[in-house]
């Protein structure tokens, strides 16, 4: 009977956590919906709805600091799997394929927010090569 009560308690806790996760507010194209759902299930309690970090301890991921030049896809994967001093590892909560989808969703969301890697000016590059 004790084991049954502890299982029920764990089940209710998990239900509470997932039901309290901030709901995604942005509509994303079909190729990014899986990533959005995985992010919602695993990451949004800490990183906020749509990775915007509002009212959370964890940083917003839709930010220039987390663009690929500064924070590569491999960096994201590593931190999700193994955590940091501030973030617990999530390797028991998410598969490698789900992380890939989350990264696609985050990169799409960064671009949709107007955050993009600055591309080198092609004229400057070709001028440098002409010397």
How does this structure look, described?
It is a single chain. This protein is an all-alpha fold and 131 residues long. The chain has a single domain, classed as Cytochrome Bc1 Complex, Chain D, domain 2 (Orthogonal Bundle), CATH 1.10.760.10. It has helices spanning 2-20, 30-42, 44-47, 73-82, 96-112, 122-130.
Named CATH topology: Cytochrome Bc1 Complex, Chain D, domain 2
**Level-2 CATH architecture:** Orthogonal Bundle
DSSP strand tally: 0
What separation lies between the terminal Cα atoms?
Answer: 81 Å
The low-confidence runs, each spanning 5 or more residues with pLDDT under 50, are: 6-19, 121-126
Average pLDDT works out at 80
Major sheet size, sense and barrel closure:
none
Give the C-alpha Rg: 19 Å
Shape category: globular
**Approximately how much helix is present in the residues?**
40-55%
Which CATH class?
Mainly Alpha
Number of domains: 1
CATH superfamily: Cytochrome c-like domain
User: Which structural class should the secondary elements be placed in?
Assistant: mainly alpha
Describe the SSE topology.
Layout lengths: L1 H19 L9 H13 L1 H4 L25 H10 L13 H17 L9 H9 L1
Helix pairs in contact: 2-5, 4-5
Short structural summary:
With 131 residues, the protein is mainly α. The chain is built from 6 helices and no strands. The longest helix has 19 residues, at 2-20.
């Amino acid at each position: 009977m004790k084991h049954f009560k502890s299982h029920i308690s764990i089940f209710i806790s998990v239900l509470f956590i997932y039901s309290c996760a901030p709901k995604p507010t942005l509509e994303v194209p079909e190729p990014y919906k899986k990533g959005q759902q995985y992010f919602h299930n695993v990451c949004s309690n800490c990183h906020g709805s749509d990775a915007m970090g509002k009212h959370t301890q964890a940083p917003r991921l839709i930010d220039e600091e987390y663009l690929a030049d500064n924070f590569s896809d491999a960096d994201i994967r590593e931190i999700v799997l193994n955590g940091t001093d501030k973030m617990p590892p999530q390797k028991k909560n998410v598969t490698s394929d789900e992380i890939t989808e989350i990264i696609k969703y985050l990169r799409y969301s960064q671009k949709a927010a107007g955050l993009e890697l600055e591309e080198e000016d092609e004229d400057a590059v070709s001028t440098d090569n002409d010397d």
